[in-house]
Amino acid sequence: MPMNKPNSQKTFILYKLIKNSKGISERQTVFNMFRGSISILRKELQERGITLKHVDRPFTNQFGRKRKYRIHWLLNSEKKKAEAYYNKLF
To answer: How wide is the angle at C-alpha 62 spanned by C-alphas 65 and 67, nearest 5°?
Structure first.
């Protein structure tokens, strides 16, 4: 079944998680509330038995300070369940 185009931040993030095997991070989006959206999505996915994985990546910002950002991804075995949930959002 073809997936509908995303119509919100939450559906955009879920769409990218399903389609992109390398995951998604706040550095790849222009959303102001990415962390909040991913947090809400993580809880909703957990309620449906879908695990959202993450890893922290360190970097040095333009002022020389050490920071980190988080990359989120779905296991390939979870993508069918995530796609079914995505389609229910429409």
So the answer is: 35
The answer to whether residue 31 scores a pLDDT higher than 70 is yes
10/61 Cα distance (integer angstroms)? 27
Enter the tokens of residue 57.
Answer: 């990546």
Confidence at 1, pLDDT banded by 50, 70, 90: low
Residues facing residue 74 across a β-bridge = 52
Q: Determine contact, residues 14/66, Cβ cutoff 8 Å.
A: no
- Extract the tokens encoding 75: 């296991």
Q: How many CB atoms lie within 10 A of CB 2?
A: 5
